[in-house]
Amino acid sequence: MESNIESSCPVCGNENSLKMIAHTTEIAYFGEHTQVTLLCSNCGLRQTDFIPAEDKTPGIWTLKISSSDDLDARVIRGSNCSVEIPELELAVFPGTHSSGYVSNVEGVINRFIEAIKISKNQFNEQENSEEYKKCDALLESLDLTKKRSFTSELTLIFSDPMGHSKILHKKATFTELTKDEAEKLL
Predict the structure, then answer these.
(1) Which CATH architecture does the domain made up of 56-185 adopt?
(2) What CATH class does 1-54 carry?
């Protein structure tokens, strides 16, 4: 279902360019979800979220990445979910325009790689040698993992106060959040 929204675009302010597309589907292993996407034809804004048909329990999903099989694990990330790899001190926290996605663990690693490359481009190798070297080290660690050369175990953590996220793998663990813990993540 596609419909115009009688609201201005939150980015460019254009009154007549914002559309919403809602699509309900069954996502294997995750159940029925509605994908809601906001699109602005004026500035290109695109914001997507996945909303489960039934209430979900807020919680933290954890997966130790130590084998090729782990990289293929299916994941769904809701727009309120924080994603972390603590061994590398990497974290992505949701913002006001954060989008949800369905991918696999390797896809999450690719997103971290792209973000680090963007950050690295902000540094001058001579003037910011420490930051530059740290970016190179992070890229090397993630690249080795992607190439399925496991020199050490990494941990992928999805913390979702809305319960919309999940890591689908037999080794993945789930820890339920209390109401107070979930509210602190919002």
Answers:
(1) Sandwich (2.60)
(2) mainly beta
The series of mean pLDDT values per 10 residues for the chain, 186 residues long, is: 72 88 77 84 87 85 95 92 96 86 95 95 82 93 89 93 92 96 90
**How large is the angle between the packed helices 105-120 and 129-146, nearest 10 degrees?**
160
The DSSP symbol for 124 reads -
Instruction: For the beta carbon of residue 58, count every other beta carbon within 10 angstroms.
Output: 21
The span from the CA of 177 to the CA of 153, in Å, is: 25
The amino acid at 37? T
Global pTM reads 0.77
Amino acid at 108: V
CATH 2.60.120.1040 boundaries in the chain:
56-185
Tell me if residue 133 falls in helix, strand or coil: helix
d(CA 77, CA 54): 16
The pLDDT of residue 49: 79
Rounded distance between C-alpha atoms, residue 36 and residue 127, angstroms: 44
